[in-house]
Amino acid sequence: METLQTTDSLLDAIAAAPGAPGQELFDPATGELVGVAPVHGLAELEAAIGAAKAAQPAWAAAGHEARSAALLAAAEAVEARAEELARILSREQGKPLNGPNARFEVGACAAWLRAAAATALEPETVVDDGTTRAVLHYRPLGIVGAIGPWNWPMMITVWQIAPALRMGNAAIVKPSSYTPLSVLALIRVINEALPDGILTVVAGDRQVGSALAEHPAIAKVMFTGSTGAGKAIIRSSADTVKRLTLELGGNDAGIVLPDADPQAIAEGIFWGAFINTGQTCAALKRLYVHTGLYDQVCQALTDFARTVPMGPGLEEANLLGPLQNASQHAIVKDLVQAAKDSGARILLGGDPDESAPGHFYPTTLVTDIDNENPLVTEEQFGPALPIIRYTDIDHAVQMANALEVGLGASVWATDTDAARAVAHRLEAGTVWINTHGTVHPMAPFGGAKQSGYGLEFGTEGLKALGQPQVIHG
Q1: CA nearest neighbour of 100 among 92, 88, 108, 110
Q2: Where does the Aldehyde dehydrogenase domain start and stop, copy by copy (predicted)?
Q3: Are 194 and 332 contained in the same domain?
Q4: CA–CA separation, 391 and 410 (whole Å)
Q5: What per-residue confidence (pLDDT) applies to 8?
Q6: How many domains does the chain have?
Q7: Helix (H) or strand (E) holding 289
């Protein structure tokens, strides 16, 4: 168990050693150097696997109570270093400190550690009829590989590792090469509460990720990222028949019913779409609005969007930040330009200042756009929302369900019974009513269609990190 002095700088503690391979990371808002992360390779992966193999049996034998106590101690450690963690996250990922951003994300890490510690998972008697008695138990899998994204690097890492650790597994984390410092810092803090070898970060490239997915010692892989990368992990894991939980890309639809109040729903729709500057798998990425209130909804959204400040994350007033990397900026820019070229109307934004520092793209609302436009059919993963007009609810549902992804969806209405009726028709793992993208540690979360499979959170999430075993007798 490693104890950090509170006077240490986390960035100094996690930096690449002098002379060792390192990767410079720059603030996407300013271009300033944030730090130098170590670059790990296959040798470091093998060392992490060896340490996990040695440590995991004792961790499993410690029992749920001891493991839960360690997770609670980890949550306290995260809270004690919360501001330092949030500032590293803001500088490396770009998200502002305030709003549903960096401080929020660090707080969510502590909350999900506590939730995993507190969630009960008792043996279940499935048959007891006087002749047969069968009890379902969940045993540790062994070593879990956790491959995370760059958009919510700390929070999603905790979503992966907290239930894995609670169930008696060791975990090896492979962070995105865009945001390794955030994850290295978080895991260093969490490891204050854990035995050596139980939780390790291997900050390497795609080769390391592939090797992790292929390795025979890894019992399960948890992955959050694009559908294409998820398919590659499926292929890499096939020969060893690994368990997988995949939370993949989404292109979430929202449907506004004719009875909705545009003023009442504008703020919720905005944050459903633009949280983390649109860089969220389960963000609202295409909005279908009934023609009877189309103009009113567009106006209400525009009015609210103008009030939300965008700028460097360390400036306390800002609530939206830059896109995390130049590649994502180019994707958003090209999709919006294609919408303009097709004749769609730009209500707000759509005109990035190319001379300004950072990967900023302005909050953009696009109307009078065809449902087949690439800005609608492709996941933009940025601050540009297409708003599509419809006249018939059956057609709106058909358009919402037309894509091969189905992570989340939402319905916006005054009559919640009518909204629920529409929700039942949508092909998505989660459907929200009059909100979008909110998650709860006890509400299972997972995708439909090519948005992945497997469930996270709550009791179902714990079960997904255990090996079911039925004992008869």
Answers
A1: 108
A2: 24-467
A3: no
A4: 18
A5: 54
A6: 2
A7: strand 284-290
Please say whether the beta carbons of 388 and 287 come within 8 A. Answer: yes
Beta-bridge mates of residue 23: 37
Count of beta carbons in the 10 Å neighbourhood of residue 218:
23
Chain centre distance of CA 347: 29
- Could you list the active site residues? 247
- Residue 363 carries which DSSP code? -
pLDDT value of residue 94: 98
- Of 156, 172, 225, 154, the C-alpha closest to 452 is 225
Residues 414 and 459 in one domain: no
Spatial contact of 323 and 279, defined as CB atoms under 8 Å apart: yes
Return d(Cα 280, Cα 285) in angstroms, integer. Answer: 10
pLDDT digits (tens, 9 = 90+) for 177-215: 999 999 999 999 999 999 999 999 999 999 999 999 999
Q: What is the mean pLDDT of residues 308-337?
A: 98
Do residues 100 and 69 both lie within one domain? yes
Q: Give the pLDDT band of residue 7 (cuts 50, 70, 90).
A: very low
CB–CB of 142/240 below 8 Å?
A: no
User: Contacts for 372-376 with beta carbons within 8 Å, 24 or more apart?
Assistant: 373/338, 373/339, 373/342, 373/344, 374/335, 374/338, 374/339, 375/335, 375/336, 375/338, 375/339, 375/344, 376/286
- Is the same domain home to 154 and 63? yes
pLDDT digits 0-9 by tens, 428-453: 999 999 999 999 999 999 999 999 99
Q: How far is CA 257 from the centre of its chain?
A: 28
Strands, sheet with 466-472, edge to edge from the N-terminal-most edge strand: 124-128, 133-140, 466-472
> Within this chain, do residues 125 and 73 fall inside the same structural domain, yes or no?
yes
State which H helix or E strand residue 449 sits in: strand 448-449
| Full domain range(s) for residue 189 | 10-248+451-472
> Tell me, what amino acid is at 338?
A
Amino acid at 440: H
What are 128-136's contacts with CB under 8 Å, separation 24+? 132/472, 133/472, 133/473, 134/470, 134/471, 134/472, 135/470, 135/471, 136/468, 136/469, 136/470
Lookup: tokens for 444: 């299972």
Same domain, 46 and 101: yes
